[in-house]
Structures are given as structure tokens and as C-alpha cells.
Amino acid sequence: MLRRTPWVPRTAVLPLLASLALLSPIAVADPGTETTPTPAATETVTAEPADPDAGADPSEAASAPEAVSPEATPDAGEDDLPTEPGVAAGNDSADEALKKTPSESEASCSMPSGVAAGAANARGTEKDLGRTYYFANTFTSKATSVITYGRANDAVLVGDWNGDGKDTLAVRRGNYYFFSNTLSGGAADVVIIFGRATDKVIVGDWNGDGADTLAVRRGNRYFFLNCLRGGVADVEVTYGRVSDQVLVGDWNGDGKDTLAVRRGKEYYVANSIKGGSADKAFAYGRASDEVYAGDWDGDGKDTLAVRRGNNFHVKNSLTGGSADRLVSYGRATDLVLVGDWDGDGKDTLGLRRPPVVKPAQTQFTFNLAWAGQPNNFFCGPTSGYMILRYKNAGNSKSTGASLTIENVATAMSTRRYGYTSFHDRKFQQGMNAWLGKNVYSTIHTPTPAVVQEKVKQSFSKGYPVAVDEQERRGGPHFNGHSNSTFSHIMVVTGYNVKTDAVQFADPGATLWGGAAQKFWYPSLATFTRNYLQYEYVNDGRQHIGIFTP
């Protein structure tokens, strides 16, 4: 059977977790001095394109919001669920695992199904690792299948769980394991509880039956299962050093997976699961390399591949020296899986892609064309006209009138009043009548927090906020406005959520020499306090505030 590395923690060191204590490298020959893999010039292959995105559209892939569905929960109560590999419920001694005979272990190797009690609440990691997986069946192809699977914080294992020759995924959430026998979304085929949530887990075909199962590592102790079930481990081995890194593979082609220890750039390979000397040792690559194991050429033996960025240096023998193949694939930020996805006898790559975290947008603008008011009291109709033109509102939904400043003034009763009455909500009424729906409302003397929130919301709603501000003689003014007391309506066309700067389209730029058609005011909060909160005209009527969608 082919063997491949299971999923491993996404750090610079991805090769799996484990060790070899009683390992004695003196039993093997000197590994030599060639430690940096270099591609053979005649056998270099570069995948075109390297990015697996080009293979299949993820939107067309099978998608499931969860790796499992909460149906068919077995009747077993919590007390019936084993909690430790190598330890029966309530037994603190892992030595009991070695006391079981193979026949006793095999007798309980029926395939469970459904979802274990409590599985819906099982948790994965805290990190968002992504839910999109890309699988390629050759080293020269684009991604041949793309799936969306599980949760973004799931830990994932790779193995041939049912012995059909094809590798698929398993999701780990704490000490719950959800096994799927196809590369698709949907419910898990097998669910078990095994070990502790803090255990380090590796995957392999330990007994040569053609199906992959789990092993748990705690320090330099390993607990091996020969079937997908919870309960007592079938084999326990004390092996290597606690600091060792471990790869899993069928190194000699006998159909059984065993361990290889990595110490820096030195590799020590054992062909059986036991203590003692390594069967082979060699040096390869750099101590900082990410390393994966797989049967890259289909000869039944697993060998190594080194990853540097998005370049994979593939070796077809357990020796130092030049790589047999160089493959460029995916992105340097991708998380790598190895497996035989199509059952052709050769391991290839799978990628798990974390989501791209885009920087939060800080500045928003409406691409609204400026218009100038034709007289000194049409600021409201002109501001409304700018908004309606920006929205391609066309003729009035209530009267059929064409979109002109004069007709908007009629809708707002501006000429009849001699101004656009804030107190009588004429801006709001005119805009909603023109649009044929209730979009705008009016807020009198709002707080800075309210104005900031409404302005931010306006960019998602697609309708700009308008302000009816008031300036007074001897007080602060802006954008070249005259030193007098008056009310004035403008449109908010931009906002920076980080600096609080706000942009206005000022229809009054036609009235004051030097005034800008659009300008930035340094702080929306300050603008609100200076011009939108205090009535300077005390005639018993409301004059200032905002018109907001």
C-alpha cells in the first residue's frame, strides 16, 4: 500500500509528530555530505499554471456548511464513550493496551457510523485555516477537483479510511474524528471519539490491511489503532526522543506504514514499529525545510519531498543528492496535503487555502457629480437633485416630472416657502415622493455618534446623507462661506472612518467666491458639534439636522 503523510501542524516544520527513542544511527552508514536537494536538469516539471485556482471554480464545487450533519446520533451515553487511547474508561494505565491479544482487538473493529454524542459541539483549532480544498491528480495538472468542506478552524487528516485505494479527508475537533470516504461535502461516514483533545495524531496503515487508522503520540509514547474506533489501543510503543519530528510512510514497500525520525536535516528510517536501531539513515535538504512523504512514482515505496515556498523538490529514493523532480504549485501560503486522490497508485498534492484577509476599508466615497444652486435658497433642491441624478432616479414617481432642479424644488415646496423647510420635513417628503418609496428620514440636532453611524451606513445602503447645517455671524464658517447667519443644505459624498474626515458636495460654491464644489472637513464629529446641534435662530421651529436613508 502507498503511504502518505497525514495532515500536520502548519508551522515551518510540517512533517508530523513523533519520535524514535531507542534509535541508534550508528547501525547505518554515514549519510554523506550532499544535503541540499537540487532538481535534475532533465526532469524538471513546472505545473502550468502553478496556482490551483485555475483548475476548477470553487463556486461549482460540492459545498457543505459542516463536515458532518447532526442526524443519526447513536444512543450511547457519555459514560459509554472511551476517552483515552491505550486506556480503558476509568483506567489510568496505558500499559493495559499491550495486554490485549490481536484477536481481542480485531473483534471490536466494526465500522461505526453516524455522529457521536456531543459531536456537534466539538471544536477544532482557534485559527481560520480555510474551508476550500484543491486536489491535483498529477504533478503537472491544474487542480482537478475543488471542494468546500467542514469548518474553517477544523484540523484535517488524510488517509484511505475504507481501503478502496483512494485517500480522503477526516476532520478532527478535539478528540472527535469525522471520517469521509469521498472527496465531497456532506455528512461524515464514520465518527469516533479517541484520546485527548491535546493529543498529537498521526495516520498510517499499521497492520497492512489496506486501510489507514490513527496513532496518538504523547511524548515518546505511541498508541496505535488498527481500526477506526475508540477504546483501547492495539499497540503501544515507546520510541525515540520527545524532541523528534516524525514522518509516516511505507519505506520498504511491504504494505505497512512505519516511522521515520527527522533530526534537523538527518533522517532515520525504521521498517518496523519497535524500538532499536534505524534501518537506514541519510541527510537531505536543510533543517528549515518543510518535508512531506509520499509514493511519488508509484513504485510502492514512500520517499520525501521538500517544500520551499511554492516549489516542491521531489525525491524518488531515500538518499541525499539532487531532487528527481521540481514542481511549482500553488501559493507559498497554502497548507499542503499529500494523498492518492484518484487511486492510481501515486501520491500527489492537495492544498487547503486560508481565506485572504483584506485590510479593512477606511475611506468611502460616492462618485456623485456636483451641481450648483441657481439662487440663494435652492440649496435643498440642488442637493436633492445631485442625489437623484446619482441614483438615476429619472422622472418623479409621483408626478412624472422630469429631473431638474426646478422640479425638485417644486416637490420640496421650496419656492412656495422661500426655503426648504426642515421643520416641515420638506426635503424628506420631496425625495421620497420622487423616488416612490420611503428612503429618507429626518433627525433633528443629532449627536456626533449618530451622524457618524448614519454616514457609515449610507455607503452600504447606496443613498447619501444630506445635512442641513446652520452658521452664525461671528461664529465658525467653512469653505469660504460668508460671515452671516443662515442655514444651508449639502450632500455627504465621502467619509474616512479612521480619521473622521468628511467630504461634502456644496451646491453653494456658485454663491461664494473661492468656495470649492467638493471639500474635505477634518472631523465629522466637530462639524456636527459646530453646525448641527445648536439652533441659532430661535423662532420656535426646527432648522438643523440630517436627512438619512
UniProtKB/TrEMBL annotation:
<feature type="signal peptide">
    <location>
        <begin position="1"/>
        <end position="29"/>
    </location>
</feature>
<dbReference type="Pfam" id="PF13529">
    <property type="entry name" value="Peptidase_C39_2"/>
</dbReference>
<feature type="compositionally biased region" description="Low complexity">
    <location>
        <begin position="31"/>
        <end position="72"/>
    </location>
</feature>
<feature type="region of interest" description="Disordered">
    <location>
        <begin position="31"/>
        <end position="116"/>
    </location>
</feature>
<keyword id="KW-0732">Signal</keyword>
<protein>
    <submittedName>
        <fullName>Peptidase_C39 like family protein</fullName>
    </submittedName>
</protein>
<dbReference type="InterPro" id="IPR028994">
    <property type="entry name" value="Integrin_alpha_N"/>
</dbReference>
<dbReference type="InterPro" id="IPR039564">
    <property type="entry name" value="Peptidase_C39-like"/>
</dbReference>
<feature type="domain" description="Peptidase C39-like">
    <location>
        <begin position="373"/>
        <end position="507"/>
    </location>
</feature>
